[in-house]
Amino acid sequence: MEKTQFKAESKRLLEMMINSIYSQREIFLRELISNSSDAIDKLYYKALTDESLNFDKDSYYIKVEADKENRILKITDTGIGMTKEELESNLGTIAKSGSLAFKKENETSDGHEIIGQFGVGFYSAFMVADSVMVISKALGSDTAYKWESTGAEGYTIVPAEKDAAGTEIFLHIKENTEEDQYDEYLEEYRLQSIIKKYSDFIRYPIKMAVTERKLKEGAENEYEEHVEEKVINSMVPIWRKNKSELTDEDYNQFYSEKHYGFDQPLKHIHISVDGAIRYNAILFIPENIPFDYYSAEYEKGLELYSNGVLIMNKCADLLPDYFSFVKGMVDSDDLSLNISREMLQHDRQLKLIAKNISKKIKSELQSLLKNDRESYEKFYKAFGRQLKYGVYSDYGANKESLQDLLLFYSSKEEKLVSLDEYTARMPEDQKYIYYASGESYERIGKLPQTEMVSEKGYEILYFTEDIDEFAINMLMTYKDKEFKSVSSGDLGFEEEAQNTAEEEKENKELFDYMKNALSGRVKDVRVSKRLKSHPVCLSTDGQVTIEMEKILKAMPNSQGVQAEKILEINTNHEVFQSLKNAFETDKEKVSLYTNLLFNQALLIEGLPISDPVEFTNDICKVMI
Ligand code: ADP
Ligand code: MG
Questions:
Q1: What total of structural domains would you count in the chain?
Q2: Domain of residue 499, CATH code
Q3: CA distances from 574 to 85, 569, 570 (A)
């Protein structure tokens, strides 16, 4: 029999596509099942306007059968079928989609969307089959036809026998080669899992004969096998169900079925949007940090479905980095997909959805903070750091929308507080939002720099994470209040400023001498406005604080960024009297004391001292 050649461009496309368009072979089944589902949909449409057809949903199905011996995988549907002409034009020409034409003629918007629109999916069968046979009978037609092809060489069409309307597709599965395994596409278990993965929410039942192994009655280890036809797909996706029908249990089950995490979700968010863009989404905030979360291996993203069919496992564009912990899925009928369904044609719709989703996540977190503090704090302990990164990254582009989600430990409350809570109870004379950085809450609590601020009754936020100061620097202000490190040059204390200016004048020579003794190590030596009982501390001028210096130093390509350090002296401390006395009688001693005090200040900050041996010898000198 003579073969009809594929149209020239189709032939080239066919070869190219089989080899490259799809990244995974297993999707051939998704494509064929989608086509079957489309074909049943078309019947459904017809029935809407043609009264002689009555669409009884129960008698429509898709069936997958594997015949291992003959290496045949058969996909049957009870859809609308194809005429000879349709076989010719739909399967003979790549990129001519019958489904698209049908869709254009029958624009409806009842959500019964037809999946196919490119006219290439069918050919993906050739990724796993060396020959494909299609027997189809169109609705209302007397004759069935058989289309057959072994790939690029062309195809034949001859009349065939078939009772009812619909289509049967026979794939002759390729033999295994050294590199490639094809046998798996005849394995019951494998086929089931592919169907579950991509086609679980196809609206019609996908049936398959499944072998069940049961212990023989009365026997201990004798089994009997029996084959039972089962519906593999769950058909109605949970995200299409009404929220009111669903329980926490249902969502939790979906979470673990989908392997979003091993934990239980802390919160689920079910979104159904029916506006300029239509989509459904189920999102989860996990309870625990995934083990690889703060590593480069972690991949953010949501599952993306187009009209119930899985398109992408991890669509990264749907989530901003600062919400990268969110798990879940999005289903939309409005996506225009590219030819392989593996990429989106235009990302305008996707961008809209992503924006919408971000907003929703944010408002859900906000309401969690407001209404269920305990859960929010649990969430924040796991993922708060990511939110702070969000404030800091992109030059602070998202800081405004994230600032109300931040919590910090408060010196006064001894628990996590929000910036809103902090500013709401600020005394009137308090100019700044104060913070102090260090390794742990305990160590920060003991920092000399916090003395005066606490004495004045002001609350101090404790920063223990690397990102904290960087994020706050990006934020700069909250509700018009500036952030201020307790170690920064100016703390905004008017009264103390006046007193110290006078004292500095009085003792100018001593301070100059000390500054000289520490030259290159500090920018200045000053009278402290922030100390009460401690003799000394370090403060900084400029943007870079001591904590930041430490963090930057630890980075692989640190460029030696240094904080501008100021050694501050508590002039009310007895040590200052000793310094003054020594300055009159023994300048050597002033140098010794100055070095000691500076090294003490470094130790308090958790900074290394450059010569520990000299330091211990200096202490001995004071003792003898
Ligand atoms: P698409 O689904 O994107 O249109 P395909 O290559 O998957 O492209 O299919 C091409 C065309 O062949 C479909 O549009 C449809 O008209 C027809 N077709 C494929 N499979 C079937 C089927 N099982 N029943 C009826 N028509 C089918
Ligand atoms: Mg298709």
A1: 4
A2: 1.20.120.790
A3: 104, 11, 9
Residues 433 and 511 in one domain: no
d(CA 280, CA 357): 10
Contact indicator for 451, 436 with CB cutoff of 8 Å: no
Give yes or no: residues 138 and 187 share one domain.
Answer: yes
The model scores a pTM over 0.90: no
Q: From the CA of 103, which ligand is nearest?
A: 1
Indicate the top mutation candidate among 31, 64, 76, 99 to test ligand 1's pocket, ranked by most ligand atoms within 8 A of CB. 99
Residues 342 and 265 in one domain: yes
Q: Are 273 and 279 in contact (CB under 8 A)?
A: yes
Give the Cα separation of 485 and 473 in Å (integer).
10
What is the pLDDT, as a whole number, of residue 311? 81
Enumerate residues 6+ apart whose C-beta is below 8 A from 545. Answer: 437, 469, 485, 487, 488, 563
- 165 with 18, same domain? yes
* C-alpha–C-alpha distance, residues 196 and 208, integer Å: 12
Q: Which two tokens stand for residue 579?
A: 């310094």
Predicted pLDDT at 308: 83
Report CA(579)–ligand 2 centroid distance (Å).
88
Q: Is residue 38, in this structure, part of any structural domain at all?
A: yes
Q: Within this chain, do residues 88 and 118 fall inside the same structural domain, yes or no? A: yes
How high is the pLDDT of residue 117? 45
Domain of 251, CATH number, reads: 3.30.230.80
Kindly give the interhelix angle for 574-585 and 508-517, rounded to the nearest 10 degrees.
90
Residue 516, domain extent: 494-540+562-623
Structure tokens at 354: 């992503």
Q: What is the pLDDT of residue 341?
A: 54
Same domain, 218 and 80: yes
**Are both 38 and 123 inside the same structural domain?**
yes
**CA 36 / ligand 2 centre spacing (Å):** 8
In a domain, 190, yes or no: yes
Weakly modelled stretches of the chain, pLDDT under 50: 95, 108-112, 114-119
- Exposure b/e, 519-544, CB count within 10 A at least 16 = b: eeebbbbbbbbbbeebbbbbbbeeeb
Q: Tell me how far the alpha carbon of residue 308 lies from the centroid of ligand 1, in angstroms.
A: 17
